[in-house]
From TrEMBL:
Domain of life: Bacteria
Protein EC: 2.7.1.4
Cofactor(s) the protein requires to work: Mg(2+)
Keyword Coiled coil: no
CDD domains linked: ASKHA_NBD_ROK_BsFRK-like
Record organism: Catonella morbi ATCC 51271
Family: Belongs to the ROK (NagC/XylR) family.
Signal sequence coordinates: none
Record InterPro entries: ATPase_NBD (IPR043129), Carb_Metab_Reg_Kinase/Isom (IPR051804), ROK (IPR000600), ROK_cs (IPR049874)
PROSITE patterns reported for this sequence: ROK
PANTHER family in alphabetical order: FRUCTOKINASE, TRANSCRIPTIONAL REPRESSOR MPRA
Name of the molecule in the record: fructokinase
Length: 292
């Protein structure tokens, strides 16, 4: 089986060819420009790769309902040239193979479940904290869609009393992404996040926000494992801080074997930042299976 994977991001497009075992044969990355510039490049790269199917993990919001007439269309995004762009249809027109599309974070969640640290677990939450915050959720083996798909980066959060910064989300006064994503940290402190490694208050505030978000997810969707990725989570010291705060905030309310084993419950991504592209490959495998 030759499976194509596309991870469509706001800054770059990662393309690969691999197989159902998660082996990647070839991988390239190109900058994301306008659809008119970027889509022909993508089509050209895949056109001589002899792929049987293509899986796509894409930035949101995007229509992820296979039964919808606008399945695979990018919706109202701040990336203006891409608003209402029919990503899936345009690729299908030229490449003519079965395709399946989901959000970038649902793809990452899937990648970790099929090839990574969440193998064999059917209910998993994946969150990336980078330029923005995205959350992918799989419950009982199904990636969560619903009316659209989760946008759980924008849940409301209580501000830390020592946080002198502001929520920078243009839509909300006190949401997680606006308080805790990389650009928010950098606006609050006036320095690059990786230059703040030694400032304890930065990570005290950050871990407080992450813990608040995770507690809300734990209480709402009850994941059996939580995987955290993205640039900000490169600060490894966050993990023990977040685990401790989550335990404290839950305050003994839930008693599960997963929560008793915090070190294996809240974990870093395990696929060297290939979880998204590997999840896309798995979406391709599913597209092929569903087409048969
Ligand atoms: P994207 O979200 O665009 O895919 P990343 O996940 O790499 O990209 O996130 C980029 C953000 O992560 C930057 O805004 C920066 O603030 C933050 N970041 C990158 N590296 C580090 C680091 N080592 N420590 C803390 N924050 C970092
Ligand atoms: Zn918001």
């Amino acid at each position: 089986m030759r499976l194509g994977g596309l991870e469509a991001g706001g800054t770059k497009m990662v393309m690969c060819v691999g197989d159902e075992n998660g082996e990647i044969f070839e991988q390239v990355s190109i900058p994301t420009r306008t659809p008119a510039e970027t889509i022909p490049e993508i089509i050209k790269w895949f056109s001589d790769k002899n792929i049987d199917a293509l899986g796509i993990g894409c930035f949101g919001p995007i229509d992820v309902s296979p039964e919808s007439p606008t399945y695979g269309q990018i919706l109202e995004t701040p990336k203006l040239p891409w608003v209402h762009y029919d990503l899936l249809k345009e690729l299908q027109k030229e490449l003519k193979v079965p395709m399946k599309v989901d959000t970038d974070v649902n793809a990452s969640c899937l990648g970790e479940m099929v090839f990574g640290c969440a193998k064999g677990i059917d209910s998993v939450l994946y969150m990336t904290i980078g330029t923005g915050v995205g959350v992918g959720i799989c419950i009982g083996g199904n990636l969560v869609h619903g009316m659209l798909h989760p946008e759980a980066g924008h849940i409301f959060i209580n501000k830390h009393p020592e946080d002198k910064g502001n929520c920078i989300c243009p839509y909300h006064d006190s949401c997680f992404e606006g308080l805790a994503a990389g650009p928010s940290i950098e606006t609050r402190w006036g320095r690059k996040a990786y230059d703040l490694a030694d400032n304890d208050l930065v990570w005290e505030i950050e871990s407080e926000y992450i813990a608040q978000a995770l507690v809300n997810y734990i209480l709402t969707v009850s994941p059996k494992k939580i995987i955290l990725g993205g640039g900000v989570m490169h600060q490894e010291r966050l993990f023990p801080m977040v685990r401790k705060k989550v335990t404290k905030m839950l305050n003994g309310y839930l008693n599960t074997k997963e929560l008793k084993d915090m070190d294996n419950y809240i974990v870093p991504n395990s696929l060297s930042d290939n979880q998204g592209i590997l999840g896309a490959i798995e979406l391709g495998r599913q597209a092929l299976e569903e087409a048969r």
